[in-house]
Amino acid sequence: MAKYDLIIIGAGPAGLTAGLYSGRSRLNTLLIEKMAVGGRILLSETIENYPGFPEGISTQNLMGRMEAQVRELGVGIISDEVLEIDCAKKVVRISDGVHEGQAIIIASGARPKKLGIPGEEKYTGRGVSYCATCDGPFFKEKKVVIVGGGNAVAEEAIYLSRFASQVSIIHRRKDLRASAILQERLQANKKVDFILNSIVTEIKGSQKTEAVTIKDVESGNLRDLNCDGIFIYIGYEPETIFLKGKIRMDENGLVITDDNMATSEAGIFACGDCRKKSLYQVVNACGDGAVAADSAYKYISNKR
Ligand code: NAP
């Protein structure tokens, strides 16, 4: 069993910032990430509301810089999935063994929600995508639909319009919830159109996606729309299954913390998109991470 001062689960903006503060406090720190270092923000191409970058910055660039800053401090980053934690013993079980800390920070983030409709699983990777940044370039001069009505849909529809010949936003209500500035850009984009008060009920095709069935929620009418791809941006759900029964969470699996990012269990802190809060942005994920690392440092110092 390897021993550390602090174990951080998740290397998105929250986890990397916690790693930055922890490294600068000279805590012996391990960061564990099951996907790509950088987290789910990498599903978006650019970020425009991270302070200090008036022209926006590519998410790869921003997260690459955060990672480099953390590695520079000697913080270890490993690629593995956390299967279980023992809150009392501060032991983390991964597929490759166990690690013990004096404190743990959970920064496990969130994963894209699925529609749960016929064809979604079958055509994932064959026209169904949750990542415009990764898959958008495959749809050059093709027709795509994008589902949802939040900021993610607005930003990704604009990104997809760089490649696709047409981008149809399908939203279940008549109003999008995306911020005003993004909605103005959508309206001005000739490649983007709107299919409102509508939901997708099925994804159809043979070898790959060829059409979606759309239901008008007011009339109940169904129709098929031909398309080459469907991008799904209907929000996120926290990556907290491994914490079930171990820590206080709300009914949606969001970890409950206080203002110091302390959870219900002593020495276990949580930050970023996996915790219950009012705003889910990179900028406050970073703020959460700094607070969590500071709280963990104080917790460890008081024990010594
Ligand atoms: P979101 O803001 O939660 O919006 C999800 C959208 O999907 C909503 O419009 C919702 O409809 C719709 N939806 C949910 N479940 C659905 C279902 N089963 N079928 C059809 N539609 C469904 O999610 P998001 O846009 O992915 O953003 C997630 C978080 O990241 C938000 O806090 C957002 O502000 C943040 N974010 C910020 C930025 C930015 O500031 N630049 C960029 C991306 C994301 P209703 O509107 O009817 O609920």
Secondary-structure element sequence? EEHEEEHEEEEEEEHEHEHEEEEEEEH
The CATH architecture classification of the largest domain is: 3-Layer(bba) Sandwich
Structural class by SSE content: alpha/beta
CATH homologous superfamily designation of the largest domain: FAD/NAD(P)-binding domain
Query: For the largest beta sheet, what order do the strands appear in spatially?
Result: 6-3-2-10-21
Computed over alpha carbons, the radius of gyration is 21 Å
The rough form would be described as elongated
The total beta strand count reads 21
Structure ligands = NADP nicotinamide-adenine-dinucleotide phosphate
Mean pLDDT: 96
How many structural domains are formed by the residues? 2
* Major sheet: 5 strands, parallel
> What share of the residues does DSSP label as strand, in percent?
25-35%
Defining traits:
304 residues; alpha/beta; FAD/NAD(P)-binding domain; five-stranded parallel sheet; 21 strands; 23% helix; binds NADP nicotinamide-adenine-dinucleotide phosphate
Protein model, in words:
- With 304 residues, the chain is an alpha/beta fold.
- The chain folds into two domains: 2-112 and 236-303, FAD/NAD(P)-binding domain, CATH 3.50.50; 128-232, FAD/NAD(P)-binding domain (3-Layer(bba) Sandwich).
- The chain has six helices and 21 strands.
- The chain has helices spanning 13-24, 59-72, 132-135, 151-160, 180-188, 282-303; strands spanning 2-3, 6-9, 29-33, 46-47, 57-58, 76-79, 82-86, 91-94, 97-100, 103-106, 110-112, 128-129, 143-147, 166-170, 192-195, 198-205, 209-216, 222-226, 229-232, 236-238, 268-270.
- The strands form six sheets. Strands 6-3-2-10-21 form a five-stranded parallel beta sheet, with helices on one face. A five-stranded parallel beta sheet has the order 12-19-13-14-15. It has a four-stranded mixed beta sheet with strand order 1-9-8-7, with no helix packed on it.
- α1 (13-24) packs parallel to α6 (282-303) and α4 packs parallel to α5.
- The longest helix has 22 residues, at 282-303.
- It is elongated.
- The chain starts with a strand and ends with a helix.
- The mean pLDDT is 96.
- The chain binds NADP nicotinamide-adenine-dinucleotide phosphate.
- NADP nicotinamide-adenine-dinucleotide phosphate is lined by residues 49, 115, 147-153, 155, 172-173, 177, 199, 233-236, 280-281.
